[in-house]
Amino acid sequence: MNYPWILFDADETLFHFYSFVGLQTMLARYGVAFGEADYAKFQAVNQPLWLRYQQGEIDMTTLAQTRFADLAAQLNRPALALNEELQHTMARLSEPLAGARELLAWLHGRGVKLGIMTNGFASLQQPRLQYTGFAEFFDLLIISEHESHPKPHRAIFESALRKMGNPPPETVLMVGDSLTSDILGGNRVGMATCWLNSANKPNETNIIPTFTVHNWVELGNIFGFQAA
Known about the structure:
Rossmann fold; DNA polymerase, domain 1; two-stranded antiparallel sheet; 2 domains; alpha/beta; PGP-like_dom2; 48% helix; 6-stranded parallel beta sheet; HAD-like_sf; 14% strand; 10 helices; 8 strands
């Protein structure tokens, strides 16, 4: 099947997102041991903040300041500075999902336009593309921090379509690991959608993707790509 434009989510779609290792690595520079219990405590604050951001209740600055408030007090460092330091650390730790590089290179070589749409922090995105060598593949980078709304709001998907030159939405494929962010948002504007369900989770929502795949090999099958 041919799509002239394909949009990809970033975290856990293009790249593994090793947040525990990233925090552990960053805090080691301050001589702070960071274990599983510490990570669980951090995530108890962090994950609800991301949900509130996705729902449009808070902005990225509030998210960053709030999730690092305790560590900022402990280290006597500004919360926003710690957040930026984490983004740079995460960029260096970035690792593409298996099969991603090969399929992206093949699609790019065939003239398919590729884009990224992410709710992640802007300061992570370009460095991560440079570190992984993925920058050459992508024609468009949509970052919610630079848009009026995050995924799954219609506005960010409509903005992407405008920046693509207003192709018919059904000729654009949105690929992502989140039903409630990537797939819901794509469905709202009439894009074809592909749920990358690497964890083989049951779909217990009423959000129906056009395709469901479990890895990049299965994703490649949609386009007729066979890895060497």
